[in-house]
Amino acid sequence: MKVHFGISRIELVQGDIAQQQVDAIVNAANAQLAGGGGVDGAIHRAAGPTVMEETRTRYPLGCPTGDAVATGAGKLTVKFLFHAVGPIWRGGREQEADLLRSAHRRSLQFAAKHDCASIAFPALSTGAYRFPVDLAAENALDETRTFLLTHPDPLIVRFVLFDAGTYAAFARVLDGFIQ
Ligand code: AR6
After folding, report:
1. In the predicted model, is pLDDT for residue 179 greater than 90?
2. Which of 40, 98, 134, 163 is catalytic?
3. Whose CA is nearest to atom 5 of ligand 1?
4. Which range marks the domain in which residue 39 is found?
5. Which residues of 64-93 are buried (b: 16+ CB within 10 A; e: fewer)?
6. pLDDT digits 0-9 by tens, 34-67
7. pTM score
8. Domain containing residue 123: CATH number
């Protein structure tokens, strides 16, 4: 599914984030930048050890929740990895939605700063961090739409959803934007 916002667009695909041919891939990292399972595991496995070496050297203090850091991409053919830290879901009263929006915004700002024409996001926080998928889709897509409508250069933002249920949740929200 593809929807245009001004000169830019949001795409939804079902698949593996580590296989995307884009300028930048967003990793679902933790605040320690310590690596882990899910998206983080798949990206580090595909990229090789240089990415973890770079995060350790350049960001020894990790990355706060709601923020992101940039590295090279090792063996991946993309130009950059942006390691974004989404919030752990704690029931919704600890600014989880704002923090999820901020993790997207920071990654999009990095894409702009590094002149990326395309960027791929996973469904941040919806796996190990247990953020409800419908609410995550609403916040991720609305924040991205807001960014694209004010960003002066064309940007393709692809959400790469692993399973059919997550794809359907994102598709429902994106569909709602064009009604
Ligand atoms: N490609 C795309 N999506 C995937 C992939 C993949 N290869 N693998 C899983 N997903 P998660 P989080 C989906 O847990 O919730 C890690 O250990 C998955 O089904 O990767 O932000 C980190 O180190 C889910 O829908 O990220 C952190 O400690 C979504 O991607 C913590 O997990 C996000 O799941 C971050 O948790």
Report:
1. no
2. 40
3. 39
4. 2-177
5. ebbbbbbbebbebebbbbbbbbbbbbeeee
6. 999 999 999 999 999 999 999 999 999 999 999 9
7. 0.98
8. 3.40.220.10
